């Protein structure tokens, strides 16, 4: 069965253990077909949709009396495991853990139902030690964890530049050191690593400590866009409660529109959530830079997911997977159509049964 050796999502900024003590906005109004929906996300600015949507109450308002039960994860695999064990119903995830969760479960663990973020990842280096790509030889570069989205990006980049690295051990012409994001800034400052390919806000934290961006990952993609964060759902929950999933998607789409129109307010909302989750807000300079490098988007950028899976296979972290059916964009496209917007494309990776309208929820048994 095709799978990542260890598919790990980026750890949250200043990450703690997974927690469920986030105080959600009060549920008000009529309930949908479930009493509640359990939603996972990370304490990263690349999860701005989730952070702002929860802080402002936009998502909860779309759900009415169906309560949001948020759960914050440090990494994608724990979120996928939570989906597998019916501990959460939906989650914002990076592409690598989504692909791995799909492959390992034979397509039973999840469906991608929306995009959330593009960009927001860079290779930041110590400019005194590394001035160009040729200076990477013999250096130590950190990534969040083995097989995570940024780990795959770095390994693929190094291979393209002629460097040989054992993907499993991280040893070779360049040493790839898998390091938690909360540790990376201090390791960089102390000189134990020479750089890191990391998501936001860690990349901006390194820049604030004197680092220089050697590779903005946006430059490696056509039009500078690639999937960094998706919204996924348990297929069981999607089948039983499509009305709830649709409400969360409306909240996600409305949150992204609000972020686009009110960037300063969105930064404050995201930072307020980060302070609640990790105990401290980001400095303004770091937060501003992290926002500039990240684009919130409803488009899942499905073609780039296929490419990222190909990159993982090329560096030896993934057998070539069959991703057909990983997307179900029916409800997202219904929400977009209602908003007068064009549909999102699944790049041919939607299941054949996902071409028609979502089934109504009236006949579904509520989860009580």
UniProtKB/TrEMBL annotation:
Residues 359-368 have a biased composition (Basic and acidic residues). The keyword Signal applies. This is ABC transporter substrate-binding protein. It comes from the Bacteria. Belongs to the bacterial solute-binding protein SsuA/TauA family. NCBIfam families: SsuA_fam. It comes from Streptomyces meridianus. CDD domains: PBP2_NrtA_CpmA_like. Keywords: Cell inner membrane, Cell membrane, Membrane, Signal, Transport. It is found in: Cell inner membrane; Periplasm. Residues 340-368 are annotated as: Disordered. The keyword Membrane applies.
């Amino acid at each position: 069965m095709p799978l990542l050796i260890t598919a790990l999502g980026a750890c949250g900024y200043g990450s703690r253990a997974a927690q469920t003590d986030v105080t959600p906005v009060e549920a008000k109004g009529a309930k949908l077909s479930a009493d509640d929906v359990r939603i996972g996300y990370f304490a990263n600015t690349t999860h701005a949709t989730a952070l702002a949507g929860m802080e402002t109450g936009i998502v909860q308002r779309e759900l009415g009396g169906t309560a949001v039960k948020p759960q914050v994860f440090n990494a994608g695999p724990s979120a996928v495991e939570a989906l597998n064990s019916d501990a959460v119903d939906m989650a914002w995830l990076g592409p690598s853990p989504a692909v791995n969760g799909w492959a390992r479960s034979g397509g039973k663990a999840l469906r991608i139902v929306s995009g959330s973020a593009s960009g927001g990842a860079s290779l930041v280096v110590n400019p005194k030690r590394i001035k160009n790509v040729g200076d990477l030889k013999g250096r130590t570069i950190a990534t969040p964890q083995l097989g995570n989205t940024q780990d795959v990006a770095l390994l693929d980049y190094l291979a393209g530049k002629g460097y040989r690295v054992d993907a499993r051990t991280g040893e070779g012409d360049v040493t790839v050191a898998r390091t938690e994001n909360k540790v990376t800034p201090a390791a960089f400052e102390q000189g134990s690593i020479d750089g890191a390919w990391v998501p936001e806000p860690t990349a901006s934290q390194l820049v604030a400590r004197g680092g220089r961006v050697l590779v903005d990952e946006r430059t490696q993609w056509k039009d500078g866009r690639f999937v960094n964060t998706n919204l996924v759902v348990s297929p069981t929950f999607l089948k039983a409660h499509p009305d709830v999933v649709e409400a969360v998607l409306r909240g996600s789409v409305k949150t992204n529109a609000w972020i686009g129109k009110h960037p300063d307010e969105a930064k404050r909302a995201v930072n307020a959530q980060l302070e609640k989750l990790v105990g401290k807000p980001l400095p303004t300079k770091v937060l501003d830079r992290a926002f500039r490098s990240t684009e919130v988007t409803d488009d899942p950028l499905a073609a780039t997911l296929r490419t990222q899976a190909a990159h993982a296979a090329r560096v030896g972290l993934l057998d070539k997977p069959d991703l057909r059916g990983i997307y179900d964009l029916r409800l997202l496209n219904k929400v977009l159509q209602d908003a007068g917007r064009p549909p999102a494309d699944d790049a041919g990776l939607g299941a054949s049964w996902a071409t028609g309208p979502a089934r109504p929820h009236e006949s579904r048994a509520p989860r009580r």
